[in-house]
Amino acid sequence: MTTPSDLRRALIVGGATLAALPAKALNLWGKKVPQVVELKPMRTVVWRDFLGVNAQFQWFEPAIARKQVERLKALDLNWVRLGLHWMLMEPKEGQFELEAIDRMMALVKDAGLRNITYVVGTPRFASVVAKGDKYEQYFDKFPPKDPVLFAQRMVMLAKRYPQVDVWQAWNEPNILGFWAPKPDPEGYGRLLLASVQGLRATVPSKPIAMAGMAYFSEMAPGNGLMIQKMGELGAFNLDLIIAYHPYTATAEGSEADPRDFVKRVVPAHQWLRSAKVKQIWATEWGWSSYDGPKEEQPIVGEQGQADLTLRRLALMAALDYDRIFLFTLSDLDKRASVRDQHYGLLRENGEPKPVYFALQRFLKICGPRIEPGTPPATVGDKPEGLIGIAWRQPDGQKLWMVWADKPGTLRLKGLAKATLHHPLKGTQRALTAQANGELSLPVDTSLQILSHA
Q1: Residue 37: its pLDDT value, please?
Q2: Cβ contacts of residue 119 below 8 Å, gap of 6+?
Q3: Disulfide check for 251: which of 16, 213, 312, 438 has CB 3.0–4.6 Å away?
Q4: Residues 368, 236: Cα–Cα separation, whole Å
Q5: CA atoms within 13 A on the CB side of 306
Q6: Please, are residues 327 and 286 in contact by the beta-carbon 8 Å criterion?
Q7: pTM for the full model?
């Protein structure tokens, strides 16, 4: 078994890189930045390469799973994130139950979908939890006794499923639901190192992702951020995709600070890039449309889910993410919690929810590719909490994504006419300049897209 000292020696170069950074940079998510008014996109976005979805095809009958794929392809999206649960694949040591996974992987291959696949969940025979422990029934939440055994299973899966594009080692080890009895960066580091060594020896051309950390990688209060801890151990030196799951109460922020999403992401990603991280992915994000009772996330309903998803997508597209995965393609059955049953773009029967139609309209308005653009000139006061993001389509047509905390009116100059799209409602209206040359733009709390020459 790999020891903490072995891990530190193996990853010492990455740790030295971090040690050379300014101390203030190590507070990843706490730096304050001015309130966002106009967010300048970081790079060109090609939606089918940038936006993916989590999918649980193995939970569904083959006909429903195929319908889900058809709905995804109708959005012209091409990436999925798949989860394999070790305790279900190998309930007893050496006895594998892979039929549902084989079927899922064949479906993904036949559909031409690209995928990142993670493995999580320890079988009883491999779990570190002791027999007779009061938490023994939650054995799958505890890490494996031997990280090498987990790595061997990842290698076996990599050989069996060559259609996997990216392997991801574990999921959300910074919270008790996936790493009990408490998060352990060095323990996860041993599992990660063994997995990387095994996969690089077996499928050397396949990228590997660190586990997607829950939220912004916070551990228990006072214990810091797990991404930062992994960096201090030197894990960034393994040339991994760094991933996390920025779930928040609203599209723009948390209940404590309704505008802290951008405030957290911008300095954190700058820090990660300064530590030579090449790829930053959000492998989960989204909102459940559940009716309650409340489980962390505010109750927003189906229309709220659609509204929040579009606004967050607009923000993430403009920020320094290389790829993002919405959670999730379909609602789930009662094997999931009440909240987790309702994150889908689709209902359990494969039929679209309002969030699916809103996303479809958003992507159609944008077109397959958008490039950083220049916002229109404004005159006078702006609605409270205005957010604007300017893009340009390849043919030169300009798009301005805009919304605000409160409805209001913007006065624009230099535009004779424009079209205002409301993808949440599925409406559009023509706008023309007044006699004074100003064009009045009604701003809503939901995202709208102004299209003009």
Answers
A1: 73
A2: 83, 84, 85, 86, 150, 153, 154, 157, 167, 168, 169, 170
A3: 312
A4: 32
A5: 20
A6: yes
A7: 0.93
